Amino acid sequence: MGSVLEAPPFAAPLPLALRGPAVLAFGAYFKNALCLAHDGEARFSATVGDLDTPDACRRMDGCARALLAQDTPAAIAHDLHPDFHSSHRACELAARLGVPAIAVQHHHAHVAAVLAENVHPGPALGLALDGVGLGSDGTAWGGELLYVDGARFERLGHLAPLPLAGGDRAAREPWRMAAAVLHRAGRADEIARRFADQPAAAMLAAVLARDALCPPTTSLGRVFDAVAGLLGLCSVMRVEAEAAIALERAATDYLERVGDVPVEPEGWAIDGAGRLNLLPLLVALTDEPDAPRGAARFHVTLAAALAAWAAHAAARTGFDVVALSGGCLHNRILSRRLGAALRAQGLTVLEAQRLSPGDAGLALGQAWVAIHQLNEGL
């Protein structure tokens, strides 16, 4: 195997205003990349991809060896999920070196990566919007409104959860997320008819009635899947993010061809606990006959809802800086409209620049949190 650093994401180290002991961060499961942060700069490995094959795991191990040859870390950072290959290797290395292994919650790391790249010390609010990450309560997070202050974070709110009908399988089959919306809307009797081409459709209403078979998720990625399923754009994914990509393409086509669409005025609600409920928008789209128009309605209203949610938190907390992070920010319609809506309300918006907003940039956030933890003696 050649050098694992032959094609790094950046030609030069990324400047890091935060100083402290050296930390090697192992990233997460998807789009894995490692980061070594020390002495005011961050060095990255190549992105090795998802850790779902032995070859990818071996590449990650090679990246770790290459970065270790540059410096000896005072701590090893990794994702909170204990079963990732990256987490296993991080803990093994920390034990061998006799240094702390620091677990960093996935969405805390996402927001921290944006703060680090923008040289913002915090505290700040953060929207972390992605497919999935293990939450500190043991459930699947992915639509999070956080307050981040160095090594600490507080979950100020989250998307109202949807059930994963059939567990992890729902993340690959958008029709199951669409069925979950119908079930929540009191229209479970429509599932078998609307998705008659799916062998499991006839029994899914019964599955959704059993909470033990349908763990909840706050993931915005699964909301994208639900809408793609409801609009008939994607029922089963063959490649990663196929449903979200199809939804964005349909919306882009409509907005370029026809023009803007109005925001659904009653498409969301924010409750007293800070939860953002998008079910009214999803229900409004269940009977949309024009899929591209429905996709445009979804994007426009989603951006407005997320902006209102963050602005509500800013007014309540007094913090006027919002970091936008997570893989859903790869969606250009969402990122542009959300950023513009927040700025229009007088808020300062921080976004990924050279880094990916998704998991490929996560290790920087892990390192940033771990250095804060070491500096603060936590």
UniProtKB/TrEMBL annotation:
Gene3D superfamilies: 3.30.420.360, 3.30.420.40
Protein name, per record: Carbamoyltransferase HypF
Domain of life of the source: Bacteria
Domain HypF Kae1-like: 21-117
InterPro entries, alphabetized: Carbamoyltrans_HypF-like, HypF_C, HypF_C_2
Similarity remark: Belongs to the carbamoyltransferase HypF family.
Domain Carbamoyltransferase Kae1-like: 126-366
Pfam family, one: HypF_C_2
